[in-house]
Design a protein that fits this description.
Layout (H helix, E strand, L loop, with lengths): L7 H5 L1 E7 L5 H15 L6 E7 L11 H9 L15 H4 L2 E4 L2 H10 L8 E3 L19 H23 L1
Parallel strand pairs: 1-2, 1-3, 3-4
Helix pairs in contact: 2-6, 3-6
């Protein structure tokens, strides 16, 4: 985790930060999927991923239990502690992938203008199209499963287009 200052992982590895609102559903799921896919490719020594939220609602908590369940069904483990987006994240991460337009705007507000190009909506990479990853928080377990599928295919394409 990045806790201020330059993170030593990010100096040695390409780094990706996933951002949503509360950092309990979409972004921790995305970071876990990314790390899982990178490990399956044997590239985990070359990449580092983390997640955060633009809001401060759940700082210090773990991921939502439905997020954990949806990921576990797909064989993806999540170890996570909620944190909020910080200004130094823009120095520490090479790519910042955001779940929806509101959090995209909120992320850009925190960043200096020269960091704006590294901030993207994650569904830019979704081969099925779409703009936002729907927030499953008020939904059903099936909504969490659908979120997993959206993130999984978007991250696969991101890795193939931007990192390999």
């Amino acid at each position: 985790m990045v806790t201020g200052g330059r993170n030593y992982f990010c100096e040695m590895k390409k780094s990706v930060l996933f951002v949503c609102l509360g950092n309990i559903c979409r972004s921790p799921m995305a970071a876990a999927i990314f790390n899982h896919q990178i490990a399956k490719m044997g590239l985990d020594s070359a990449f580092f991923a983390d997640s955060c939220g633009t809001g401060d609602y759940h700082i210090g908590q773990g991921a939502d239990s439905r997020t954990l369940a949806a990921a576990e069904k797909q064989g993806v483990a999540i170890t996570h502690t909620v944190r909020q987006l910080q200004a130094d994240d823009f120095e520490n991460f090479d790519h910042i992938l955001v779940m929806d337009q509101q959090n995209y705007r909120n992320t850009l507000r925190v960043a200096d203008a020269h960091h704006h190009p590294k901030v993207e909506l994650i569904r830019t990479y979704d081969p099925d199209g779409g703009i936002e990853v729907p927030d499953p928080y008020y939904g059903t377990p099936q909504d969490f499963d659908e979120t997993f599928l959206i993130l999984n295919r978007s991250i696969q394409r991101f890795i193939s287009f931007r990192l390999t």
